[in-house]
Amino acid sequence: MKTTSLIAALGAAAAAAGIAVLPASGQDQPSTRTLAFVTTQKRSDVKSIDVKPKGDSVGDGFLLSSLMHSDGKVVGRVEAQCVMLDKTYHAQMCTITAILADGLITLQGGGLDKKLPGGGGSNEVYAITGGTGAYVGATGSMTIKGNGQRDTLTFTLG
Questions:
Q1: What predicted TM-score, i.e. pTM, was given to this entire model?
Q2: 120 near 89, Cβ under 8 Å?
Q3: Going by C-beta distance under 8 Å and a sequence separation of 6 or more, which residues neighbour residue 104?
Q4: Where are the alpha helices (DSSP H) in 1-51?
Q5: Interval 6-57: pLDDT, tens
Q6: Around Cβ 130, how many Cβ atoms within 10 Å?
Q7: For residue 36, how many C-alpha atoms fall within 13 Å in the half-sphere facing its CB?
Q8: Phi-psi sector, 20: left (phi>0), alpha (psi -120 to 50), beta
C-alpha cells in the first residue's frame, strides 16, 4: 500500500510541476534584441577569387575579414565567404560569422548586386542560424547597409 501511495504522490507532483512550467495563454512573447556595428573595409580585408573564365563568372567569390566597431571601439570581427551563383544579377550565397567577446553569431544567406525586374531589391538580409556563448540558440536576421567600405551591420535577435 505504501509503494502505491508513493507512486501516486510522485505522479501527481510530476504532473503539477509539468503544468507549472507550461506558458500561460496570452503570455508575452520573448522580446527582440538589436545589435548594431560599423565595419570599415580596407582593400587588404577582402580577397577576390576569380575562377576561369576571367572576369565575372559563376564560381567567383570573395573572402572578407573585418573589424566591427561600436561607439568607436573595436568589439569584434566579421568573417565571410561568398560565391557568385548567377552572372546576370550577381547573385551570391554567403556564410558569415560574427565574432564577439561573449560568443559567435552564425549567418547564412544570399544577395543580389542588381535589382530584379518588376520588384525585389538588392538589400542584403541574412538569416541568423545560431551561435555560441551568449548567442546559443540565436535566431533572427542581419542586414547590411553601406557602400562596401563602411557598412552598418544590424542584428535583430529573436
A1: 0.74
A2: no
A3: 97, 98, 131, 132, 133, 135
A4: 2-21
A5: 333 333 333 333 333 344 445 555 688 999 999 988 889 899 999 999 988 8
A6: 14
A7: 6
A8: alpha
Rg (CA), the chain: 23
Architecture of domain 32-157: Beta Barrel (2.40)
Q: What are the domain boundaries of the chain? A: 32-157
φ, ψ for residue 38, nearest 5 deg = -110, 135
Q: Which residues pair with 61 in a beta bridge?
A: 49, 83
Contacts of 52-60 with CB under 8 Å at 24 or more apart are: 56/84, 56/87, 56/90, 57/84, 57/87, 58/84, 58/85, 58/86, 58/87, 59/83, 59/84, 60/84
Which of 110, 150, 143, 151 shows the shortest CA–CA distance to 35? 143
DSSP codes joined into one string, 90-155: TEEEEEEEEEETTEEEEEEEEE-SSPPTTS----EEEEEEEESGGGTT--EEEEEEE-SSEEEEEE
Render pLDDT for 62-79 as a digit per residue (tens, 0 to 9): 999 999 999 999 999 999
- The single-letter DSSP state of residue 44 is G
